[in-house]
Amino acid sequence: MAHTRPPAVAGTFYPADPVELERAVAGYLADAASRALAGEAAGAGSRTDPGPAKALIAPHAGYVYSGPVAGSAYAALTGDADSVERVVLLGPAHRVSLRGLAVPTASAFGTPLGDVPVDLDAVEALRALPQVHEDDAAHAAEHSLEVHLPFLQLLLGAFRLVPLVVGDATADQVAEVLEHVWGGPETRVVVSSDLSHYHDYATARRLDAATARAIEELDPEGLDRESACGRAPIRGLLVAARRQGLRARSLDLRSSGDTAGPRGEVVGYGAFALA
User: Fold this and answer.
1) Which residues of the chain have pLDDT under 70?
2) Distance (Å, whole) CA 20 – CA 10
3) CA 204 to CA 226: how far, in whole Å?
């Protein structure tokens, strides 16, 4: 029976009130656009813009912490939003132990801004892969996918979602999944990940700069447990991106010490576009 996966972190990670939520997301996007125009994106790389983004990497903490950096990622879609019909969204498992990748049985994902329909045909096709499993428990309380949906809803309006929670999976396993749903310009990929965790500010800057270099070089082996909580989906994206001839660039690189919080112990956040 069709059902909607309800929001699990509305009111904690982001505003539960739809008016407040829309205002917050619009503010992050507007601020990111202003920073990009001014050439002030903190820590952003200097590589030439490779064109419309096929894939993004963006953070998934509470909006007060990572919302500004997520805005930098999603601002890269603003000029191309009309062509997007489907988003493949991958994030790491925080709540359950998981082997491979998990798809839900839900037919939609809910947020305070409304319901996002799941691409049921794509999910059904992915279930034929041995590393993909149906697991509602992996999705029920997981925030790594949910926090991205309001950004996508505000930017894209109507779109279909392919939601994947990633557990213990190799880069090749994730890349194989991505290649099955890669599609054309109607499909975009978003990988949800924060970067370094709970280091002092200076150490986090050093670690996150190394992670950004590995992503820009499409080097999955350059990422380890210190690099990112979403290293498994990032590694898979980098393998797929190399096969597809994409290039990556950094859009923003900050931490909770820059956005909201003390600098004694921070979490790193990065925004990246691949085109």
Assistant:
1) 1, 40-50
2) 11
3) 10
> Which pLDDT score is estimated for 37?
82
CA atoms within 13 A on the CB side of 10: 18
Q: How far apart are CA 113 and CA 174, in angstroms?
A: 30
Tokens, residue 224: 């380890």
- Mapping DSSP to helix (H, G, I), strand (E, B) and coil, where does residue 5 land? strand
146: amino acid identity, one letter: E
Pairing state of beta strands 101-103 and 55-58? Answer: unpaired
Tens digits of residue pLDDT in 79-126? 888 999 999 999 999 999 999 999 999 999 999 999 999 999 999 999
Which domains are seen in the chain, by residue range? Answer: 20-274 (3.40.830.10)
pTM above 0.70, yes or no: yes
Q: Within a 10 A sphere around the Cβ of 55, how many other Cβ atoms?
A: 24
Residue with tokens 């037919």: 107
